[in-house]
Specification:
Radius of gyration: 47 Å
CATH architecture of the largest domain: Beta Barrel
CATH class of the largest domain: Mainly Beta
CATH superfamily of the largest domain: Efflux pump adaptor protein, beta barrel domain
Low-confidence stretches: 1-5
Strand order of the largest sheet: 2-11-15-13-12-16
Distance between the termini: 83 Å
Largest sheet: 6 strands, antiparallel, barrel
Number of strands: 21
Number of helices: 5
Helix content: 25-40%
Order of helices and strands: HHEEEEEEHHEEEEEHEEEEEEEEEE
Amino acid sequence: MESSAKKKSPVKKIFSIIGVVLIAVVVVGIFVFLWKKSQPKEVIYEIVEVVEGDIENATVATGKVSPRDEVLIKPQIAGIIETVLKEAGDFVKAGEVIATIQVVPESAQLSGAESQLNIAKINLNLSSADYNRQKQLFDKGVIAKEEMDKAEADYKKAQEDAENAKDNLDIIRTGVSKKTAKYSNTQIRSTIDGMILDIPVKVGNSVIQSNNFNEGTTIATVANMSDMIFIGKVDETEVGRIHTGMPIKLSIGAIDNKKFDASLEYVAPKGVEENGAILFEIKAAAQITDTISIRAGYSANAQIIVANAKGVLTVPESTVSFSNDSAFVYILKEETPKQVFDKQFIKVGLSNGINIEVKSGLTKGQKIRGNEVDEKAPKPEQPK
């Protein structure tokens, strides 16, 4: 009876067997998982073809487009703006009047000029009376011709002094005399043909003349808009690679999808420090057609072509590996069922940061290893 009680029931035996089997399955599964994880993962690479193309190596300078000739029109006389005949945006010819100035005379100068005129008139009256007396005596044969000539000369000199004194008074009062009306300093004229960019003064503003001690008040800014230049700056790391005469492609911010040719004509011999960097000023003559309206001060970027190679073999620079002084790629040997590559040393040339020139080691159409394919990345949709 006791031996039979110690015997396990059939149900318990089944559960024991199931437990052992489950434990064995778990242990085997763990070993299989660890074994698979330890196996090297197959990497799939993009396949890139060697193609023929052009490569340009360029540096970019930021700046603006400005007219080459920009002239500040300043008065040669002090006074008050009386009229403004033009406005910004108008085209003017050299010699065309832009504004007029009303002269405000100083009291001392005006008083002195009036006094000089009065003295000149008194001298003229005396010379006139003396001339008439001498003429009467000469007609009667009382005096010699030399005395008559002297009296006539003194009279003409007195007339000239009186006219000069009157002109001087007119100039002080109005800024212009009868003799010099054509060359009046009160009329502010353009000195070049071009467009008026700015007129910073208004009617009633006081202005002072330009002289050795003062720049004077600017009446207008006139520029020749048919001759534009690019003014920009390049970093010291790039300035050694550029020189005058280099071709440039200009991109103007206000004009989309349009590039303009230019030629580098100036590189500053001295740099200027800005925000911790040394920058050198450059200037380039821009070739802009008359059909395109360019305003002074447009921001622009200049792409300076430092070097170029046309019709050469190229590959993406990311496909090239470098070791010491050597460069190499991996050529596709087999693609299925598994990608197989052979290492190939090559000689490279010019690079633009994206593609690089292959001088030797590859031929057009060869397939090489590209970047690793990310299997998790979404695949592009196929066109319908």
